Amino acid sequence: MKQVLSVLVVAGVSLAAPLHLAQAADMADINRTLPVAQQGTGAAQAGLAGEQSPVQQTPSVLNLLQEIETLKAEVARLRGLTEVQAHQLDTLDKRQTDLYADLDQRLTELAKQAQAAPVAAAPAAGSATPADAQAETAAYDAALKQFREDDFSAAIAEFKTFLKTYPDSALAPNAQYWIGYSYYALKDYKTSLAHQQKLLAVYPASAKVPHARGRSGKSPSGRAEVSMSDALTLRLTEVFLSLQGETSRAGLPTVFVRLTGCPLRCRWCDTPYSFQGGETVTLPSLLAQIAALGVSTVCVTGGEPLAQKNCPALLTALCDAGYSVSLETSGALDVSQVDPRVSRIVDIKAPESGEAARNRWENLVHLTPNDEIKFVLANRADYDWAREVIHAQNLTQISPVLLSPVQGELPPAQLADWVLADRLPVRMQLQLHKILWGNAPGK
Ligand code: SF4
């Protein structure tokens, strides 16, 4: 028994070491936790010093095991906290770099102007002050908000003003795209086409180009206005009709479009068959397959659908065709280019997935209440990490948050108890299709 207790003492001490390493992240937490660790090791030492009978020793060993479990959970929580704080530091660091670059550019321009005009003219009354990066983003967001609210005329006016005010903005190609799109929504196909062609000509490298190419429409005369969608292809694993098993759309008859390929390898992935293979299909033929299944709700999934460059064009084409569209994405790729009519279901990968380092935190600023954020959790450490992220990033103020247990690893009732105990404002979900049909592909 002394041998067992010696091992436990060593374990207690080794658990205290990571706590010490996390000290820089959160001294208050560490100070709260260390006495617990010391109590654990102290209790073990007391057990060694006293010569207890086997009957007396059994409860002591159980107590020590419980204390070690408590310490493990605390270490996991502190690690999660450290990761969140590291991300916040990264974000601040990047913001500072951007501001510095902006300031540097403006100082350079001022120096050039001073050289060109030695006698400075007094600024005209009421002239505009130089806009900073925040004002630029705010102007773009305001115009996009008009588009999202279906006020296309206002969106056109605001995006045109944006292009005049910030002609060199990195968001200029997007503004040009949304102008064309707004005319399209107003059924002014001729003007829409002219603006989309301007996008292709002036910003050929823009990520919006595949969207513009993918847009297909006909004028009232029936003549095809944009016919480049025939040239767009996608790699497809399967198209099938099932019930949506997750999200706020659970239970709805839905056409699933599973695109092939994924750059991630989550440890518990349930669709590895989508990593390779599949067949190449054109966009029109895929739209025809979807239409043949006869339901109005479509979910584009994978794999990682956004790994295919023509996925945004597919999503836009589906929205244009009148479908209610959702996209399931790993959260590792940029979601900002996705058509705003699509509901984006964005994963945040927890540590047990093995892919937490791939989380693209910049995506969060692009999400809206129309989107949903999903965590898949394998154990208590994952849950504690997710809870910290939810609080630290105010996720429930951005989009509805979903928690799912990894099938066969975390008992659903256990996760439900944790959510209730913490009064966590999230939606816990089970995969309805797996309850109904198990892991059968195509269901
Ligand atoms: S992102 Fe999705 S498809 Fe890719 S490995 Fe993870 S669970 Fe599987």
Could you characterize the architecture of this molecule?
There is one protein chain. This protein is of the alpha/beta class. It folds into three domains: 2-85; 135-215, Alpha Horseshoe (Serine Threonine Protein Phosphatase 5, Tetratricopeptide repeat); 230-437, Aldolase class I (TIM Barrel), CATH 3.20.20. Helix content is 50%, strand content 13%. It contains 13 helices and eleven strands. It has helices spanning 2-21, 27-49, 54-116, 133-148, 152-165, 172-185, 189-202, 209-214, 283-292, 311-320, 380-392, 412-422, 432-437; strands at 217-218, 224-226, 233-243, 253-259, 279-282, 297-301, 324-329, 343-347, 372-377, 401-405, 427-428. The strands form two sheets. A nine-stranded mixed sheet has the order 5-3-4-6-7-8-9-10-11. Strand 6 (297-301), helix 10 and strand 7 form a beta-alpha-beta unit. Helix 1 packs antiparallel against helix 2 (27-49). The chain is globular, with a radius of gyration of 28 Å. The two termini are 54 Å apart. The model is unreliable at 1-51, 117-128 and 216-227 (pLDDT under 50). Bound molecules: iron/sulfur cluster (SF4).
Keywords:
3 domains, 11 strands, 13% strand, 9-stranded mixed β-sheet, single chain, alpha/beta, binds iron/sulfur cluster, two-stranded antiparallel ribbon, Serine Threonine Protein Phosphatase 5, Tetratricopeptide repeat
The spatial strand order of the largest sheet comes to: 5-3-4-6-7-8-9-10-11
The biggest beta sheet, please?
Answer: 9 strands, mixed
Tell me roughly what share of residues is in helical segments.
40-55%
The H/E string reads HHHHHHHHEEEEEHEHEEEHEHEH
Strand content: 5-15%
Structural class: alpha/beta
What is the residue-averaged pLDDT?
79
Q: What name is given to the CATH topology of the largest domain?
A: TIM Barrel
- Provide the domain count: 3
Enumerate the spans where pLDDT stays under 50 for 5 or more consecutive residues.
1-51, 117-128, 216-227
CATH architecture of the largest domain: Alpha-Beta Barrel
CATH superfamily of the largest domain: Aldolase class I
* CATH class descriptor name of the largest domain: Alpha Beta
Q: What's the overall geometry?
A: globular
What small molecules are bound in this structure? Answer: iron/sulfur cluster
Number of strands: 11
What is the number of helices? 13
| N- and C-termini, Cα separation | 54 Å
* Gyration radius, in Å: 28 Å
